[in-house]
Amino acid sequence: MKSENISLTWSEYESSDELLPEDRELIIAAREATENSYAPYSGFHVGAAVRLENGVIVRGANIENAAFPSGICAERTALSNSASNYPGISPEAIAIAARTSDGLTKEPIPPCGNCRQVIAEEEFRNGKNIKVILSGNSKIIIIDKGSDLLPLQFNRNNLSSNPL
Fold this sequence. Notes:
By secondary structure, this protein is α+β, with helices and mostly antiparallel strands. The protein has a single domain (14-151), classed as Cytidine Deaminase, domain 2. It is 24% helix and 23% strand. The chain is built from three helices and seven strands, in the order βαββαββαββ. It has helices at 21-33, 74-85, 113-126; strands at residues 11-13, 45-52, 57-61, 91-100, 103-104, 131-135, 140-143. Strands 1, 2, 3, 4, 5, 6 and 7 form a seven-stranded mixed sheet that branches. The longest helix is centred in the last third of the chain and has 14 residues, at 113-126. The chain is globular. The protein starts with 10 loop residues before the first strand and ends in a 21-residue tail after the last strand. 34% of the residues are buried.
């Protein structure tokens, strides 16, 4: 028998003043993107901002739908927007923020499973890590690469060209 271990390492900051200026800028963009959210059902407004390797920042917000599976998350909106409008320019980082009727969430929120898969696929597709910045009122968490959030992720290497 063989045994393996999976672990996750992150950096935690109490203030955005401790961050690089470009990461602070990305957090501000993600927080502003929450204002573009359409969340009449949950009241949970999520914003994401992706910084591309050319320095362009692309924003996304969650858009809910009365047919709940039809909505889309902020992270997937921002990554799809960047891939569609800036083909061949890789994402370097993504910041995520959320607010409720009480304001910005105290704790940073992590991406859902679907978004983790999309971030991991973008890393795989571009052959480059994407820094993940989770922003809350009480702290900021930075994970060096998105694929760390989804160990043993499914990717094109799992697909077989051989029919069953």
